């Protein structure tokens, strides 16, 4: 049986990915949660906790000590979908933790860089419009995103930069390095580079909610996808159906997911 570690799975994309994986006979999961009690009584998860297929680890995704606990058992895949809580202002969305994605990536890569043996596949949830993918968005989104999502995207850029730098294959986006207040330059040198053989950076279109699930027939995936929206459940379905499988064609790519 394969094992997945998930960070940021208390809700949203990683939560639905957890449910999808556990519903098969192939996967067990470990979740890092700041408040495990919040999911302890979740009726969708309780049977898996009782059977031992699901384990909660209490901790914070920006703590090296806490994240290291996740790898007491070897993992085949790590899925990180951590994010801050947005607050909308006249300057667009602002996060309660402006560099949480970047800091969590720093933390995870420090831990993975010290593991023995082959590192697990890393699947990181980012956003459409990052880097060169901005040019593939509909015109309305190319105008809307820089205003509405400027600050969250700086944080995502920090995460993507670090993931690409740690990858043995993905090109480092030198022209899309966020400012030092998001990614301090002295932090970069502390993180190992060119050591992850399998990285997937998933870039969802504008998230419109948790559901309903439209399925594979309606969901499109491409590195140059022109798309407006997608739901969290369909992004989760893409990850659990196509990204975690051995030999996935999306390994070392940056797929955009949308309708």
Automatic annotation (TrEMBL):
Domain of life: Eukaryota
A family per Pfam: NAD_binding_10
Domain NAD(P)-binding: from-to ranges: 8-141
Name of protein: NAD(P)-binding domain-containing protein
Source organism per UniProt: Saitozyma podzolica
């Amino acid at each position: 049986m394969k094992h997945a570690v998930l960070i940021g799975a208390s809700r949203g994309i990683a939560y639905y990915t957890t449910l999808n994986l556990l519903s098969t006979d192939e996967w067990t999961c470990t979740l890092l949660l700041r408040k495990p009690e919040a999911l302890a009584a979740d009726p969708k998860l309780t049977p898996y906790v009782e059977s031992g297929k699901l384990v909660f680890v209490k901790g914070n995704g920006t703590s090296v000590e806490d994240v290291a606990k996740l790898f007491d058992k070897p993992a085949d895949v790590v899925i990180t979908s951590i994010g801050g809580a947005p607050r909308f202002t006249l300057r667009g969305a602002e996060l309660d933790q402006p560099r949480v994605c970047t800091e969590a990536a720093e933390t995870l890569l420090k831990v993975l860089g010290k593991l023995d043996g082959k590192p697990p596949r890393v699947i990181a949830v980012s956003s459409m419009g990052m880097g060169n993918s901005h040019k593939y968005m509909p015109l309305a989104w190319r105008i809307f995103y820089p205003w509405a999502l400027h600050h969250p995207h700086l944080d995502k850029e920090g995460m993507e930069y670090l993931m690409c730098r740690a990858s043995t294959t993905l090109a480092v986006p030198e022209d899309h390095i966020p400012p030092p207040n998001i990614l301090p330059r002295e932090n970069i040198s502390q993180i190992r580079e060119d050591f992850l053989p399998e990285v997937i950076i998933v870039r969802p279109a504008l998230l419109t909610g948790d559901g309903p699930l439209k399925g594979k027939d309606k969901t499109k995936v491409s590195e140059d996808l022109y798309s407006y929206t997608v739901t969290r459940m369909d992004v989760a379905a893409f990850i659990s159906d196509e990204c975690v499988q051995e030999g996935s064609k999306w390994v070392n790519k940056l797929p955009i997911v949308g309708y």
